Structure formats: structure tokens, C-alpha cells
Amino acid sequence: EEQEEDVLRELRLFLRNVTERLSLDRRFKAFTRPVDIEEVPDYLMVIKKPMDLSTLLTNIDEHKYVTVSEFMLDADLIWQNALEYNPDSDPMDRHIRHRACALKDTVRAILRDELDEDFERVCEEIKESR
Ligand SMILES: CC(=O)c1csc(NC(=O)C2C[NH2+]C2)n1
């Protein structure tokens, strides 16, 4: 019904705002676009579910997410993939793992501070009803 569409529109506005703020943070530059397979040819042999901030935005606009939890499953892929693809002790791996952990912590802090649990509960109810 119309009220449900109003809730989902507000969800998309919130998720777009969070995702755009992350995309503006220079620490997360490596996570803003899909990994370039020409530059990193073995990436898709290691990472089965690539994800990046621009793809999150596209998914939001395509109404892929009905709850924040669904969005979080994809957002978590970004830093999880980076930890998986960069496991070594060399400085480059450590550098990107540090930024991946900063992304994880930043997303969690934003949702803790800015997402009302009652709002997410309403989104979950809409999801269950469909
Ligand atoms: C997005 C992401 O996780 C990414 C992009 S390049 C990269 N890692 C490297 O290029 C090498 C440093 N050791 C492998 N990781």
C-alpha cells in the first residue's frame, strides 16, 4: 500500500545518504568502484561475490533492498572481500586490510547512531508480508 511505499522510499534515501558519505571518504577510495579485472586478473578466481560502493548505489536505485539488513549483507561483502583477497603480511595488504576494517567500523557506527530500530522493524514487517 502507499504507506509501505513511503517507508521504502525513506529507506532508499537513508541508504543512499550512507553510501554516498562512504564514497566521499578518501580512506575508502579502493572500494568505490568494481575491481578492474585487467589490473587484477586473478580477482574473480578468489572473490566469488564482488561488491563495491557504486554497485550498492545501483542496487538501492533498483529497489534491491527492502530492509537495512539486506543492504548490510552486501555492504559487509566489500570489507570481507578485501580481507580475503589481501591476507599477506606485505605492507600493501596490511594497508588495504586496515581500510577494510575502518569501513566495517564506520558502517556499524553510522547505523548504530542513525538507524531507528523501530524503522528497521517496519521494513522487516513489509519484507515478511511480501
Ligand atoms: C578492492 C581490493 O580489495 C583490492 C584492490 S587491489 C587489492 N590488492 C592488491 O592489489 C595486491 C596487494 N596484495 C594484492 N585489493
What is the tally of helical segments? Answer: 6
Mean pLDDT: 98
Q: DSSP strand (E) fraction?
A: under 5%
**N- to C-terminal separation?**
11 Å
Run of helices and strands: HHHHHH
Structure classification: mainly alpha
Bound molecules: ligand 5U9
The total strand number stands at 0
Largest β-sheet summary: none
Determine the fraction of residues in helical runs and give it as a percent range. Answer: 55-70%
Please tell me what the overall shape is: elongated
Q: Provide the low-confidence segments as ranges.
A: none
Oligomer: single chain
Rg, rounded, reads 16 Å
Describe the structure.
α1 runs antiparallel to α3 and α1 crosses α6. The termini are close together. This protein has six helices and no strands. 69% of the residues lie in helices and 0% in strands. With 130 residues, the chain is an all-alpha fold. Bound molecules: ligand 5U9.
Outline of the structure:
The chain has 130 residues and is mainly α. 69% of the residues lie in helices and 0% in strands.
Chain-wise SSE layout:
Elements: H1 2-24, H2 43-46, H3 53-61, H4 68-85, H5 91-114, H6 117-128
Helix pairs in contact: 1-3, 1-6, 4-5
The structure holds the ligand CC(=O)c1csc(NC(=O)C2C[NH2+]C2)n1.
The ligand CC(=O)c1csc(NC(=O)C2C[NH2+]C2)n1 is lined by residues 30-31, 35, 40, 82, 85-86, 92-93, 96.
